[in-house]
Every structure is written in structure tokens, then in C-alpha cells.
Amino acid sequence: MKKKSFSIFLTTLLTFSVMLSACSGGNSSNSSKESKDPVSTNEGNKAAVVEAEGPTEIKIMLPLNTSETPPDTIKTEVEKITNTKLTYQFFPADTYEEKLNTSLATGSLPQVVYLKNQTTFVQMKESIKDGQFWEIGPYMSEFPNLSKLKPEILNNTKVDGKLYSLYIGRPLARQGIIYRKDWADKLGLSAPKNVDELFKMAKAFTEQDPDGNGIKDTIGVVDRNELIYGAFKTVSSWFGTPNTWGEQDGQLAPEFTFSQYVDTMDFFKKLREGGYMNQDFAATSKTDAVNMFTSGKAGLYIGGSMQDIDSLNKDLIKNVPDAVLDTHSMVAGPDGKITQWMIPGYNNVALFPKTAVKDEAELKKILAYFDKMMTPEVSNLMYWGIEGIHYTVEDGKAKAGDDKELIEREVKGYKDSVIGEAETNGMYQPYNVLPGRIHAEELLLENVKFGVADPTAALDSATYTSKGVELQQIITDATYNYIYGQLDKAGFEKQVESWKSRGGAQIIEEYNAAR
């Protein structure tokens, strides 16, 4: 009797289940919609399963270029849109390499690791070759938005012909001068047309009391402890120095073997000896250099990005309300020619450590998050903030809000992590109102016309990968010591020979063989 009752109950339950299935599938409008909706495909069903599993948890490490860690305002909104639970590990940019190397050595890197710049990417190449990071090239075609990333830039980030990273796109040539136009106007100076006029401006900003306080308390150039993204490489390109590597007698050779590199060192040596730049620039952090400029004590900020004028202006006018900044980059060398060094289309990349990302399935979930990041909705949120709070849309462009401190505090940390560029992720272009920034955007286009690419950007050298950063320190130290007057030309050339004997000659050979 009990068995019969149970059979009747089971039959009734199954019948009821079939009826429910029929009802849910019998709506003709729903059937029609599902036949057209991508969600009804196998890929869509897989996505639905992922959604059902709950948010994807992702830990991300990246450099912080502001003084404070951002609150969760932007992160919370991103999590809602992308169905993720994000944990950001921010570390100060000035000490980021140290933290990166320590975390790599201890196997404590999170699932996503942003580097700091192209130099740290070089540092990671040996670890990439050792198999410590996931190769992502084979999976890119599965993600429609990641597939939009520019092939020529992706090629510049490949290691041994394989893709391991996603890039943060940047204009090819952003560097130039941000200067005190009010000082220049007061002293009857125009934007420098050549390196001689640049020197004269630095001297005048130091000696002719441009702030009018009757005290000799200003300097021309403020620089920092960075030969690439500080002033040195930008001025060096104006002198005609090749971009990292150049051609001599039909062979590739490093930039510091060219006479123009020595001319640039002489230029900075004269600036320093004259007191026309901060004396301890080789020990000055970016933060301290920015603070010196925005305090009103320096007139020329060279290198980096002319787009930084917005943040510099914001902080400067707090201290000097009447200050006026402008941008400039068309500076000719001694031969009368204008040249600008160019980056390979990115300034940073994100990698995926195998110690943290356990298997292919987890990697694909993380890549799916980045695929969503490359939609206008998410990229605008992360780059510009929340519409109506951090920015508004005017003429189809993003106009940053008036509360610059709010934007820097809440948005800047996330802005620096957006993959791709406006052409590939669909985010808004900026709507600029500051005259100097409008000028900067015009100059970015002009710079490319005079751009010089690094001929080794897509080449590989095993010795450079393993020893390049270590060997570069020889040249960095020698350059600073020359400018500081602690080495003469013969002493500098001796250090170049040391670079060659300790592996540099092999690098030269390998790059030339890879052409």
C-alpha cells in the first residue's frame, strides 16, 4: 500500500513538472525572443551558468599615483555591472617595483598584476619565459571586446612571439613642456623654439624674479629621479638622440653610444651648475617634483605627459591663484630639426600569475571581466567616474567636474587600470576647457609627425631580458655622475665599455640578429 501511494505521488509530481516545462516554453513571444537572443546560444548558456555561480572574485595589484587609496565608490559600481567581487591592492608608485619584486619572489602575487611601466615589463620578461604567467593569446578570440585591442600594440608586448598581457593604451608621444606662461609673459619670453631658448628660459626663470617677490627663490626646471619619464629623455630626443636604440654604420646601437646623448648630458650639467634646476634631481621623487612645481617655485616641468597640466594647474592655483600654465613641445635641436621619442603604444600592462590563477577556467573568468571592462559603460565608469557626479557629457565628450579633488580621490586610482584606449573600448574623449590642455591635445597629434620609434620594441634579446635592467643601472649611474660633475667624458665612456663587457655587447649582437 505504501509502495503504491508513493508511485502515485511520484507520477503526479513528474506530470506537474512536465506541465510547468510546457508552460514556460509555450509562450510564442518568449520563444521568438530566445531564438534571436545571443543568451540562448551555447555561449550564452555558459554565461548564465557563470552568473548563477555568483560573482567572480578577483584580486588586483596595481601602482597608486595619488597620495591616498581611493574609496570603493567606483569599485562598487563596477562590481554590480560585471558581476564580480574585486579586491584592489594599491601600492605607492614610487616604491612599486620593490613591492612587485618581493611579491614575485615570495609567490604572493594576486590574480591580476599591473606593472608600473615598460621598464618593469622588461624586468618581468625572464619570469614570463620561465612560465610563471599565463599565456593569454590562445583565448583572445573568445572575447569580442578584447579582440578589438590593436594588433600592432599587442605585438609590441609579446614575449618570444607569445601574448601574456593586456595593455593600457596611451598616445604615442605625450611628452613635452608644461610651463608658467605668466612668468614667460612677464619676462617677455615666448615658448622656446629650440634647446638654446629652452636653456635661456630656465635661466631667466631662476635669475629674473619671475614671481615678483623680490627674492631669488625660483628655479627654471624641476626634474625627478627618472631618466625616461622625467626630463632627460624628452630633451635628449630634441637633441636628436635615437629612441633607446638607433642605427650606426648599418647596425643597431644603444642610445648612449651616440654623441647626442653626451650633448644632452652637457645640457643638464650646465643647467645644474648654473642653479637653473633642482640640485638633487637624481634623488627627487615624482611626488616631490610635482610639489615643487605646484608650490610656485619652479617654472618648467618637462617630460612625462603634457596631459598632466590639468592636475598640476588644479594644485598650483591653490597656492598661486593668478598662475597661468601652457604646454609646448616643438623644440628643435642644434641641427634645427624637431624629433620626438615615441612609446610603443602602451605605458603599462596587466599579467596573470600562475601561482594565483589556478587553472584555465579561472583565467577565462578573469578575462571575461576585462572583456566587460572594454565596453563603453564600464570603461567610462572606471576612467571618468559616475556621470553627473564626476563628469558630464557635452558634445559627445566627457567634461570633468569642477571638484578636481573628488575626482582624483575617487577615480584616479581606477582610471590608471583601464585596458585599451578610446578607439578600442569606446570610452568618451575628453571635453577640455583649460587652454593649456586644449593646446596639449593639439600637440599630441603634432608630436607623432616628428615621432621616432624604438626599433627594438618588438625585438627580443635573451641577454637583455636577463641582464638588461641590471646593466642599465651602470648607464643610469654614469649619466647622473656625469651631470653631477663626478665623471668626465672619458670616465663615462669607460662605463659604457663596462656595460659592453658585462653583457651589453651580447645584447647588441642579439638585437641585430633579430632584425
TrEMBL record:
The keyword Disulfide bond does not apply. Residues 1-22 form the signal peptide. It holds the Pfam family SBP_bac_1. Keywords: Cell membrane, Lipoprotein, Membrane, Palmitate, Signal. Residues 25-46 are annotated as: Disordered. The keyword Cell membrane applies. This is ABC transporter peptide-binding protein YtcQ.
